[in-house]
Amino acid sequence: MVVTRFRYKQVIAVRTDLKMSKGKLAVQVAHGAVTASERARLMDRRTWRAWFTEGQKKVVVRVASEAELLHLQRLAVENGLPQALIRDAGMTELPPGTATVICVGPGPSEDVDRVTGTLKLL
Q1: Residue closest to 7 by CA, chosen among 56, 40, 42, 43
Q2: Contact, 63 vs 13, CB < 8 A?
Q3: Are the C-beta atoms of residues 106 and 53 closer than 8 Å to each other?
Q4: Which domains does the chain have, with CATH numbers?
């Protein structure tokens, strides 16, 4: 059995207070992952490529409010990590501009953990 330790990862925090459908939640997570990945590629191509070739590890965690998303965004910026705060367009379930997820990374796992390491898995 081969055990792989990922040196890089991306964490997507989802608001649980919004009670999004599974489909809506999946789309919001995808928006966050893609947007933050592109920002990471532009910020630090070497780190992005290492994450990408290593297997693109992603972890989805939960938060209870918009305030928690904004706090994570501030921490990500302070730590120099790529991040993407996703706001819904309001075409289906949520009012326009509703903050749904924050994606932190990809980046070195220990750096991402400084921002998201205490959060529970979704």
Answers
A1: 56
A2: yes
A3: no
A4: 8-116 (3.40.1490.10)
Whether 82 contacts 107, CB under 8 Å: yes
For every residue of the chain, which 3-state class applies, written as one string?
CCCCCCCEEEEEEEECCCCCCHHHHHHHHHHHHHHHHHHHHHHCHHHHHHHHHHCCCEEEEEECCHHHHHHHHHHHHHCCCCEEEEECCCCCCCCCCCEEEEEEEEEEHHHHHHHHCCCCEC
> pLDDT tens-digit profile of 42-92?
999 999 999 999 999 999 999 999 999 999 999 999 999 999 999 999 999
Phi, psi (deg, nearest 5) at residue 54: -75, -15
12's CB contacts (< 8 A; 6+ apart) are 29, 32, 33, 58, 59, 60, 61, 101, 102, 103, 104
Give residue 42's Cα distance to chain centre.
16
